Every structure is written in structure tokens, then in C-alpha cells.
TrEMBL record:
The keyword Signal applies. Pfam families: Ribonuc_L-PSP. It comes from Robiginitalea myxolifaciens. SUPFAM superfamilies: YjgF-like (SSF55298). Residues 1-25 form the signal peptide. Keywords: Signal. InterPro entries: RutC-like_sf, YjgF/YER057c/UK114. This is Enamine deaminase RidA, house cleaning of reactive enamine intermediates, YjgF/YER057c/UK114 family. The keyword Signal applies. PANTHER family: BLR7761 PROTEIN, YJGH FAMILY PROTEIN.
Amino acid sequence: MKNRHLAYMASIVLAAVLFSCQEQTQQSQEEVVTEMESKSDTAEYFLLRPDVEKAYGYSHAVKIGNSIKVSGAVSMDDAGAPMAIGDIEKQMKNCYTDLRKILEHYGCTFDDVVVENIFTTDMAAFLEVAAYRGEIYTNHFPTGTWLGVKELALPEFLIEIELEVHKAD
């Protein structure tokens, strides 16, 4: 009887210890998740050309957690005036130059791009110069869509490129 009583008491103590450990572990996990959620839910906005972007009412990029959304880049100078008018290849290169600046701001490269959407008012001309993308994406191409559109924000723009990026921890 005495041994049975000791075994019973030991099992109660063990159960209490295990319950306490489980409760502390659960609290720690909840604290970590809450901390991660608060960090990942905070949006970090980036303006490449603040005056232009404020005038038109958009941010060039926003990062939430490991995800970065990049608004469509077009061939424009710092005042917002179209550049390389009539030259889709030069406009495309100007877009990638701006996109590279945005990626670098977040510590990323084109290797981190997971989606690339290209909008063009002249698909035939774009297809003639699209091979340039192989100089940008040297390891792999992202997913994406190429769309022929009637017009972009200004009639001089022939191409617009938007990105989605995943920044690994």
C-alpha cells in the first residue's frame, strides 16, 4: 500500500511538472509567433522618385515580411518625363536599371524575383528584344505574364515591368 501511495504521489508530481513545462513552452511559442507576426505585418514602403510617386499617388515598392511587391517600372527620368521615346529596347533597359535599384534597396537581386509581369504596347517589338532578359536573369527566370495592352500611363511608354520578390531570411 505504501509503495502504491508513493507511486501515486510521484505520478501527480510528474504530471504537474510536465503540465508546467508544456504551459511554459506554449507561452514561449505564442510569444515568438506574436513577435514574428508583428515584424512581418509591418509594411516598409520605398519611393524611388518621391516627388513623382507622390504626385501620381503610388509607392514604387512595399515589403511585408519576406514578400516585396514592386510597382511597374517605366522609362522615365527623375522628374517623371519619358525617356528613350520610340526605343523599346532602351526603355526596357531603363526599367531594369530602376528595378535593380529597388531590389538593392531591400538587399535583393534579380535571383530573388519570383514573378515578373511585362506590359507592352508593341508585343512584336518587345519579342524582338526580349532575349535581353537573359542578361538580367542569369540563374533562372521567374514566373510571369507578358501582356499586350492598348496603352500605358503616358503614350510615350512602350513597356512597363512589375515584380514580386521573395527575400529569403
